[in-house]
Amino acid sequence: MTERPWLAHYPADVEHELVPPPFRTLPELIAHAAAEYADTVAFTQCMPNGMNGSLTYAQVEALSDAFAAYLREDVGLQAGDRVAMQMPNCLSYPVVAFGILKAGCVLVNTNPLYTASEMIHQFSDSGAKALVIIDMFADRLPEVVAATDIETVVTVRIGEFFPPVIAGVIRLVQKWWNRSLPAITVEHTALQTALASGRERLGKAESYVEGLGADSLAALQYTGGTTGVAKGAMLSHGNLVANTLQMMQLLSTHIRPGKEVVLTALPMYHIFAFTVNLIGFFHEGARNILIPSPRPPSNLKRAFENYKITWTTGVNTLFNALLNERWFTENPPKHLVASAAGGMALHESVSERWREVTGTPIVEGYGLTETSPALTFNPLGGVGKDGTIGIPVPSTDIRCVGEDGTDVGVGEPGELIARGPQVTAGYWNRPDDTANAMLDGWFRTGDIAQMDEDGYFTIVDRKKDMVLVSGFNVYPNEVEERIAAMPGVLEVGVIGLPDEKTGESVRAYIVAAENPPTEAEVMAHCRETLAAYKVPKSVRFVEELPKSPIGKILRRELRAIGVTSDTASIETQGRELS
Amino acid sequence: MTGASLIHLTQTVVNEQDVVTEFEQILLVGLVFVIMFGLGAGLTPRDFRSALRRPWGLIIGFVTQFGIMPLLAYLLVIAVLFQLPREYAAPVALGALLMGCVPAGTTSNIFTYFSKGNLALSVIMTTNSTLWAILMTPLVLAFYGSLVFDAESDLQIPILNIVVTLATLLIPVVAGMILRRYSANVGAVMELLGGFFGLFFIVFLMATWVPRNWALLTSTPWQTYLVAIGLGLFGIAIAYAIARAIRMHPMNARTIGLETGIQNGPLAIAIVLLTFAGSPDIGLILFVPALYSLFIVIVATFVTFWFRRANLAEEQKIPNLL
Questions:
Q1: Residue A342's pLDDT band (cuts 50, 70, 90)
Q2: Are A293 and A299 in contact (CB under 8 A)?
Q3: How far is A113 from chain B (nearest CA, A)?
């Protein structure tokens, strides 16, 4: 047993070990919450103009039962078959996702903005047999269906389960005003038809999940798409149930079962919102306010006006964007209790302002797709340390190790490795990648971190984002943090670029806000608090930064931009010379 | 055009009892109510608080709306319209002045959206000028009215009636706000309808009013057209130029331009219908508001295209300062 110095910092009434859950699988967890909170509103979808629809816990339970029956009886899927789903946050999401899980099938979450080739990779790799897709993005279907094993396509509408008149208005606007509905040329079934058919064949639900246990596969969650070929992390029912409860246990001091109203602006196809909002807050009897599209941030205005939001979950980019909206800072949500950030580093400047503006705590957690996702969280009911990712969630062990796999000392940077019930068994059909990711039963995160004497961890950076300037390690996070704190800087991304003299050099890409600083001012500011080799050698002002669907800044793409634009300018110079 | 034919023209119009039929009157007033209702359905008390905290955009909007537009209407009237015989020009001028004094229309929000302007600013400016209109429209109208018409003139502006009409039109705004509080869905639909009905109104004018008054339109002197078109076009241009001159972000300058130039045509028509009912001159008073409403769509469309082309490159460098 590894030493766990962090246990001393658990809030007083939080158990150190995960309380054994009364259920082994997600269908059991869902049924449990649905029975407990039957008539409470579970999900409300709020469109940018305030149009909305809701489903109660009992309705979600009944509809997902019908969808499970449709998958098994109509489509003829078996337990363990993969079903892909591709939609933004909407009321269909819980119905379809829970239906897939209740059918004993494996959920393959897919980003709706994927191109045809990305979809083909993900569906072929997972071997998905069925796809549930939002109609707005169905234009890619002919190409995708032809190239994969997908035999069944179910389409959903964005206004599904809304009051009929409102759904009709939304559809009219989509069709005639936005013209965002492509003609669907492949054979498909509308969700409502599938549900109607499933409703007639209810009754065998027990048998679908008979063989399921904690080790059964629940989801293939693709990751690494931003660094190369996307791999499917195998998340079992046990992984997801454990992680849901681990998080809720650590955050329990600030969650009132049956009373919370949580803003779900991050897409639920991403592991953070999937586990925390869709499953975690569902388990707690909360009302999820689903936002189909959080960009631009003004799309959230009506949600904040119309609902008494008590919880928000998000990423740095989202909190930062809200803090730059006047309607938000002038009328911060009155009923807010707390906020949780994950997915990427939460800048201290952002967390400080958030607390100042809303008067409520915000805590940062850390995790990966492969760990369902949460490994650590700052304890809401205990001492939160800004800039750290907090302490491990219950029943989780974390170490920082050097290149040789031995523990580094307190305060020393090393690769963060983790062990716990939420950690994946590996990557789907990729034994080599799985072997590379594991170290004697511990999962290697690829992140460089350090632990302080209290057991709080701080992420130094991604191992592969590290910039090597004249043999010195520069961690982009550190430089970004400094620049982000400057007035006039909206967002910043820091990368390393090849450099003749120093091997690599630091470049900052900045999205300017009001009264932006000059390049020289940025460098001078960095020079005040950073060692000379960490100061950016060049600064570029850009309109926007490349981002992942949840808003994580994609340094790999920034590097690509940096390298090509520099080569291009060199080429131009060459031509001018010759 | 000779004086004789103009007098003839005046007489035809005066004798025409059904320039606007009773059915159209009811429909137009109903339409204005729906538009105002939609405006209210998009508002919360927070919006007012926010607007009051940051008054600069609103002050500029206020100045352009109740300073420039009425002045522009007045100048067009004395420089262009009063070249024509008074018995024709006076009632038409009254309509033109009224058109200059009414608040901004909801259609401006749609054009702001398409010209990549600041939609939030547009909405708040429309709302703001609509609320101020109760006080400002009668006040400004009375002022320019006293400059244009002498006290003994037959044509008097029923200021009190206009105040009552404007106050009445605030009822749907408040009702919209209350309704939206209880059902966000109904509120959002009304908001959407309000915007569309503004456009529907133009279509309606084209389909019924234009054919029926075709003879009148073809014999209308160019001066009247210049006033009706110029009010919108020059209004947009002047407000935009001022906003740029005081170094506002192009996005906001575009918004202020469109917001200022695009007046609430349906409201002006409703005011005429409700306050000049029974007046023999009602047909001529309605003339500029009706022509303005028709042409502003065309003017704003061209301006929107121009804005989209002219400003894209410039905007790359300038951060949003409002």
A1: confident
A2: yes
A3: 24
Whole-number Cα distances in Å, A122 to A117, A154, A268, B108: 9, 18, 17, 45
> What per-residue confidence (pLDDT) applies to A573?
34
Q: Does B321 touch chain A if contact means CB atoms closer than 8 Å?
A: yes
Q: What is the dihedral of CA B17, B18, B22, B25, to 10 degrees?
A: -110
Q: How far is A329 from chain B (nearest CA, A)?
A: 10
- Residue B232 in domain: yes
Query: What is the CATH T-level fold of the domain A54-212, as seen in this structure?
Result: Rossmann fold (3.40.50)
Set of chain B residues whose Cβ sits within 8 Å of the Cβ of A159: none
Domain extent for B286:
56-170+198-310
**Is the complex ipTM more than 0.90?**
no
Q: Kindly state the average pLDDT of the residues A311-318.
A: 91
In a domain, B44, yes or no: no
Q: Is residue B222 part of a domain?
A: yes
Give residue-wise pLDDT tens across range A167-219. 999 998 888 877 788 889 899 999 999 999 999 999 888 899 998 999 999 99
How far apart CA B288 and CA A539 sit, in angstroms, is 56
Tens digits of per-residue pLDDT, B92-115? 999 999 999 998 887 787 788 777
B312 vs A: CB within 8 A: no
Structural domains counted in chain B: 1
Q: Using one digit for the tens of pLDDT, what is the confidence trace for A106-141?
A: 999 998 888 888 899 999 999 999 999 999 999 999
Paired with A390 in beta bridges are: A457
pLDDT > 70: percent of chain A? 96
The closest of A412, A554, A414 to A476, measured between CA atoms, is A554
The CATH number for B274's domain is 1.20.1530.20
For residue A294, the SS3 value is: coil
Report the alpha-carbon distance of residue B245 to residue B100 in Å, rounded.
23
Residue of B190, B192, B199, B312 to mutate for A, most A C-beta atoms under 10 A: B192
Shortest distance between the Cα of B184 and any Cα of chain A, in A, equals 6
Distance from C-alpha of A332 to C-alpha of B31, rounded to nearest angstrom: 36
DSSP strand pairing (A287-290 vs A338-341): unpaired
Residue B321 has pLDDT above 60, yes or no: no
B185 contacts in A (CB within 8 Å)?
50-52, 162-163, 166
The reported pTM is 0.80
Q: Please report residues of B whose CB lies closer than 8 A to that of A513.
A: 319
Measure CA B138 to chain center. 14
The proportion of chain A whose per-residue pLDDT surpasses 90, expressed as a percent, equals 61
The set of residues, in sequence order, having a beta carbon less than 8 Å from that of A376 and lying 6+ positions away, is A365, A366, A367, A389, A390, A391, A392, A393, A396, A398, A457
Say if residue A332's pLDDT is above 90.
yes
Residues of chain A with CATH 3.40.50.980: 54-212
CATH number of the domain at A467-577, please? 3.30.300.30
pLDDT, residue A562, reads: 80
- What is the predicted pLDDT for the residue at B320? 33
- Cα–Cα distance measured from residue A564 to residue A557, given in angstroms and rounded to the nearest whole number: 11
Strands A287-290 and A106-109: unpaired
Is residue B88 in some structural domain? yes
The arithmetic mean of pLDDT across residues B9-33, rounded, is 62
Residue of B nearest to A169 (CA): B189
B316 touching chain A per CB within 8 A: yes
